[in-house]
Amino acid sequence: AGAAALAPLLAEAGPAWERRWSMLGCGDLVRREGCLYLYREAPSSRELGFQLRKKHGVHQELLSPAEVARLEPALAPLERHGVFFPEAMHIDSPGDLMRVMAAAVQRLGAPHRRARAVQLKGDGFDVVVEAQATDGVLQSVRARHVVISAGAHSLGLARQVGESVPLDTERGYHVEYAVDAPLIRRPVCPVERGIYATPLSGRLRVAGTVEFGGVARPANPRRWSLIDRGARELFPSDRKSTRLNSS
Fold first, then answer.
1. Mean pLDDT on 141-157
2. 170 pairs with which residues across the strands?
3. Which of 56, 72, 98, 171 could be disulfide-bonded to 7 (CB atoms 3.0-4.6 Å)?
4. pLDDT at 238 over 60
């Protein structure tokens, strides 16, 4: 049921982003190299996940160890069987893309205020947002419609206007490495290891593991160590890389 609900949304996501990138003139930030899942044992086209993706129109290809090696020669020979998704894309620099999109919105006349929303309240047909600017001054913004997109902090804001949203906080972890040259051309996921490596501009991001951590509980450093160990096993030539950031 989940796959059936997600499939039509995901099928439209790529073309919708392509239209947006074309309009913004930032297609050079997008890499159309597909993505690669790795397995210790050869996956089968009869496997449930493969069949489910096929049923919903996902383009996927089973790869032999030799084909995986040709696609990504820098990988350690640990999990060499693969499933390749040729239509997948990734962003070379997510921060640059967000800056381009923000500038485009402002050019179209939407004002941009940098402040922390602290309270929502209804006032007739309008919603009033009380926000605290970086200098500490409170300001009010009145609007007919308000979109709450505050991530883990959305629940508290929604409750202020009487919405009981079944929302909890799923915290993810990642480690970033400085690289002189890209180690891989596309996102790579060694499935059994539970990590996902993505090449970005000047760095490699390796993500993995999640937890229901709330917004106050401190991060667990052992999870970063687990990701780091898996990354260095996956990329043995990356042993001298410098950790840039852990989040």
1. 90
2. 212
3. 56
4. no
Dump pLDDT digits (tens) for 107-120: 989 888 889 999 99
Place of tokens 């890209």: 182
pLDDT of residue 236: 80
Enter the pTM of the model: 0.83
**Cα–Cα distance, 214 to 222 (Å, whole number):** 18
Annotate the chain with DSSP letters as a single string: -HHHHHHHHHHHHHHHHHHHHHHHT-GGGEE---EEEEESS---TTSHHHHHHHHTT---EEE-HHHHHHH-TTS-SSS-EEEEETT--EES-HHHHHHHHHHHHHHTT-----EEEEEEEEETTEEEEEEEETTS-EEEEEES------GGGHHHHHHHTT-------EEEEEEEEE-SS-S-SS-EEEGGGTEEEEEETTEEEEEEEEEE-TTTSPP-HHHHHHHHHHHHHH-GGGTTPPEEEE-
CA dist., res. 173 & res. 220, Å (int)? 9
Q: How confident is the model over 158-188, as pLDDT tens digits?
A: 999 888 888 888 889 999 999 888 999 999 9
How deeply is 107 buried, as exposed, middle or buried, from its count of CB atoms within 10 A (0-12, 13-18, 19+)?
exposed
**Cβ burial, residue 138 (10 Å; 0-12/13-18/19+):** exposed
Neighbours of 190 (CB within 10 A): 24
Dist CA 10 CA 5 (whole Å): 9
Place of tokens 């926000």: 131
Q: Are 203 and 243 in contact (CB under 8 A)?
A: no
